[in-house]
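Subgroup meeting minutes
Present: P.N., E.W., G.H.
Scribe: E.W.

1. P.N. recapped why we're keeping a running log of single-chain structure predictions: easier to compare across weeks, and new members can see raw inputs and outputs side by side.
2. G.H. added today's entry (461 aa).
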Amino acid sequence: MHRLLPILLALLTSLSWGATPPNVVLYIADDHGRDDSSVYNPSGDAITPQMAKLAAAGLTFDQAFVASPACGPSRSALLSGLMPIRNGAEHNHEKPRPETQTMIRRLREAGYEVAAFGKVHHNKWIESVGADHVDPTRNNLEKSVQAYLQTRTGNRPLLLIVGDVRTHAPWREHDTYDGVDLTVPSHWVDTPDTQQTWENYLGEVTEVDTTLGNIDAIARAHFGTDDFLSIYTSDHGHAFPFGKWNLYDWGTQVAFIARWPGVIGPGTRTEAMISWIDIFPTLLEIAGADTPTEIDGRSFAAVLRGNSAHHRELIFTTHSGDGDKNIYPIRAIRDRRFKYIRNIHPDTYHTTHTDIQRRPGHGSLFNEWVAAAETDPQARDVVRKYHYRPAVEFYDIAQDPGETTNLVENPAYAAEVARLASALDDWMEQHGDNVRMEREPYALTKPYPGAGLTVKPGLHK
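Output recorded in log:
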């Protein structure tokens, strides 16, 4: 009898959602900042009518986070339900360990057909984990998806994963925002190159938004209904300074919008805190399948159904590095109000592709930032905060969502600092996180390694 119990539980779970598991469209943008959407920032510059349309018909998560702010570790966490330290993909472009269970395999075992288009993971790893169809073509996603659906046979429920790379740097020039008075984020240095790069990036955001709407229309036509689960999200924040490769909310907090007619009420929002590692078990529960007990993720299906307004109390995020451009491991813990960041090697330069390469269409703006810092104290402070970081940063997110004022030495917050520091210590010990390094970091005692000059260190603020 005990052998039948898992089967009976899976059957009851499936029946609670309906007789047939739903089709699912999971749309993943590359490097799209959460606030670069009218859904999350109505007064901002981004023009995203399709995201707004999806949100008007569904549920917007205001507290969704990735496990890591670099493409490979973030996507590996999504597909495995495991934090980077546990699946093996800690540094960018690494793959999970061969024995790692994946969302794709488990959903296929649960009866799903899985098709992946565009960039779902690096290095063709997605092709090795058993999807029914993989098309890595990154251009004209609509054409690829349409062609596949037109020739598809059978009646298995479908998980359609679409990975759109256009918001990944470098960004092409667009005319979408020509003549628009744009406002760059206040924690940057506002220069002509910054304005142009911001405009180019926003043009890519709007193109992604258009394709999101087109894919939704194609899926509706194929399924003959809008009765399917549609999700829009991003693998981490934008690739501007303090976003991607960083554990500030600019890098780890992402858009997550879900529509599911008949299950999710239209135009709703939730403050439930979720992590990308939770998507795997959530889809398994929806499919009526058992969740592997060894994964880190926890299903938030109850939040989708409107049966719960809460999920996680703590969010852990990690970043270990990205080749020789970014050798700066960081760990962080966040609750609803406070963020504790631990910079593992504060005696080294924080660098990324932005300032190391300074490529046109992405990092060339950094040259203007450094030039401005020669005479502008505010610009100097921005560049210093980018490069030179203290061992610990602590922010009151409720009062300081931009994470501008480090409160670690403020005695009024000593108890909260100690609480989150202890929780992070425990988490790292439980997960065996010894901060694996693949390269030697750039010591402050050595010359700055970037492709140009920069500001000399100042006091940590």
